[in-house]
């Protein structure tokens, strides 16, 4: 895998032809394979009309197809870069999970406290306080629901990021 830049090609097939040596009787099949790999790695290449020249393109290794002469740099993306990025991504996952846990725990603690206070208000027949506490309880339940949705949303996003990132290796 290596990185190059977009040079204003009008069609994906033109870009594929610049980056890979697509020759021989199987060239239509190989071209389709290269184009699919390019799109999978760079979804933004789906519409070349809106891509400015100089935009970075990640060029995947395509089994059975060699890079065009002079296109692949001598030093492809070093593994160390992937390792450091993977560590950073895992750190982000841990930080967001901890934040979601803190939000959920705070909401649960609030709900537990409110439950006791609501029971106390009922025992004292303090209807006004009970109503206010029930309103607070509804807000705390909404915060708990939001915290759980936050965790699920970020787990999904980061899971997809990890899968995409691992596809590069």
List keywords for this structure.
single chain; 169 residues; mainly alpha; two-stranded antiparallel sheet; 2 strands; 65% helix
Number of strands: 2
**Domain tally:** 2
Which oligomeric form is depicted? Answer: single chain
Query: Helix amount, in percent?
Result: 55-70%
Strand order of the largest sheet: 1-2
Q: How confident is the prediction overall: mean pLDDT?
A: 87
Question: What is the global morphology?
Answer: rod-shaped
Radius of gyration: 27 Å
Main beta sheet strand tally, sense and closure? 2 strands, antiparallel
Can you tell me the residue ranges where pLDDT is under 50 for at least 5 consecutive residues?
none
Strand content: under 5%
Structural class: mainly alpha
Number of helices: 4
Give me the strand/helix succession.
EHHEHH
Distance between the termini: 8 Å
Any overview of this molecule?
The protein has 169 residues and is mainly α. It has two domains: 2-59, no CATH class; 79-168. 65% of the residues lie in helices and 5% in strands. It has four helices and two strands; from the N terminus they run βααβαα. The protein has helices at residues 12-19, 27-41, 79-123, 127-168; strands at 2-5, 56-59. A two-stranded antiparallel ribbon has the order 1-2. Helix 1 packs across helix 2 (27-41) and helix 3 packs antiparallel against helix 4 (127-168). The longest helix is centred in the middle third of the chain and has 45 residues, at 79-123. The termini are close together. The model has no long low-confidence stretch (mean pLDDT 87).
